[in-house]
Design goal:
alpha/beta, six-stranded parallel beta sheet, 15 helices, 13 strands, 15% strand
Length: 413
């Protein structure tokens, strides 16, 4: 069986490490893997794991292409899609929508013709994102219905409130199977997209991402300072301002906050932290580091609490990675956080999505106030929950086996 995999930039660049992690466990299930990406850069250094049976085909020209914007303005598809987004999916519309539609139309133009040249026999067409990649794939399937097409979906490409994905009906309707990475994502697609599909409706079922569960544990506490860690880009949606506001309210506990990540807005967030975090709170911004360094940090440095304050999430791998080491996580009830946190008084602390810094501060203090026995019990349960539910060796191998079985049983072959 062959696999055609659609990604954004993998195996180039530093992002989409989740694709790399998955392929480490699944590549041996396939005879040949062809990877299409939209990499534009001249540097094609492979920074991540690339299977020995994989071939990479770059499709440049999608990003920063003003012609795509013009194409959207003059495309007959734009008015209908714009009105559907605004009236049915409650998009705000405007320039963002037109630009997004243009990107989708350009991706279709660049990629669909290449996909149509691929052999469909004994082949699985797999888009890692339910975005413009999958839209191009759906357009190809219109011309060649014998193509077996599946897509994962995560956060911005799943939840309608993110307002960043377009041609939802055509994209979802062009898939045979859609695999959200959380049960909340499955409900989103099932309840808000499938009702608008008049003809073909794909099967939508949850398929969790996974993290390494190799038995390593976070070291025990050896000092009084509360060690707080967070991982994210500096996008406003990640709400680092909420973390800063919460830490600023805690006055009677020595705290050190370590943040991993970079991006636009880093200087402004650092300035806010320098202004508000004084006295008992120190902090360190590590910037973007390779994923292996995150694991090395968790294995070598005690962490009391991992904090995720995002407004939106798919199901954050960073939370799962921290909890796999036995670190207690605190997060808002965004996206699939509930499924990762497992908040039944057992593992982490799940907060309502609509909170202020006071509630987040109270949760952090609650972790700091636990007895040693309660802390250890929770840390053990965190690691056990992640190993049971999100062990990547188990999850990704099961996913590959599921794809092969579905392809063999697919009536359209």
């Amino acid at each position: 069986m062959n696999l055609i995999l659609l990604t954004s930039k993998y195996p180039y660049g530093k992002q989409e490490v989740f694709v790399s992690n998955e392929l480490e466990y699944t590549y041996q299930y396939f005879d040949k893997i062809t990877i299409y990406n939209f990499w534009d850069g001249p540097d094609r250094t492979v920074n991540q794991f690339l299977p020995p049976n994989a071939e990479v085909k770059c499709v440049p020209g999608l990003f920063n292409n003003k012609m795509g914007m013009l194409g959207a303005l003059f495309s007959p598809k734009t008015p209908g899609e714009f009105l559907f987004d605004v009236r049915k999916l409650r998009y705000r519309g405007g320039k963002q929508t037109v630009r997004g539609i243009g990107q989708y139309l350009l991706a279709r133009k660049l990629l669909t013709k290449l996909l149509l040249e691929e052999d469909t026999e004994n082949t699985i067409f797999y888009s890692y994102w339910l975005s413009y990649h999958a839209y191009a794939l759906a357009e190809a399937k219109k011309q060649r219905p014998e193509m077996f097409c599946v897509s994962r979906t995560h956060n911005v490409d799943c939840f309608l409130d993110r307002q960043t994905s377009f041609f939802r009906r055509e994209t979802v309707g062009g898939m045979d199977y859609v695999f959200p990475c959380s049960d909340r994502g499955t409900r989103e697609i099932t309840e808000r997209i499938l009702p608008f599909l008049e003809e073909h409706r794909p099967t939508v079922t949850t398929s969790y991402l996974g993290v390494a569960c190799d038995g390593r544990r976070n070291p025990d506490r050896t000092e009084e300072t509360l060690q707080v860690v967070s991982i994210s880009n500096f996008y406003p949606v990640k709400r680092l301002d909420l973390i800063i506001g919460a830490l600023a309210q805690i006055k009677d506990i020595p705290i050190h906050w370590t943040h991993f990540g970079d991006g636009v807005g880093m200087a402004a967030v650092q300035a806010e932290a320098e202004e508000k975090l004084k006295g008992n709170v120190t902090f360190c911004f590590k910037g973007r580091v390779p994923n292996r360094e995150i694991h090395e940090y968790f294995a070598a440095n005690h962490v009391d609490v991992f904090v995720n304050a995002s407004d939106f999430e798919g199901i954050p791998v960073s939370i799962m990675e921290a909890m796999s080491y036995g670190i207690i996580a605190v997060a808002r009830d965004a996206g699939g956080n509930r499924e990762a946190i497992c908040d039944e008084g057992d593992c982490g602390i799940l907060l309502p999505n609509e909170i202020g810094p006071e509630a987040l501060a109270e949760a952090i203090v609650r972790v700091a106030s636990m007895t040693p026995e309660e802390t250890q019990a929770r840390r053990d349960r965190c690691a056990e929950h992640i190993d049971r539910t999100f062990n990547q060796a188990k999850a990704y191998r099961a996913f590959a086996e599921q794809l092969l079985r579905l392809r063999r049983e697919w009536p359209g072959k």
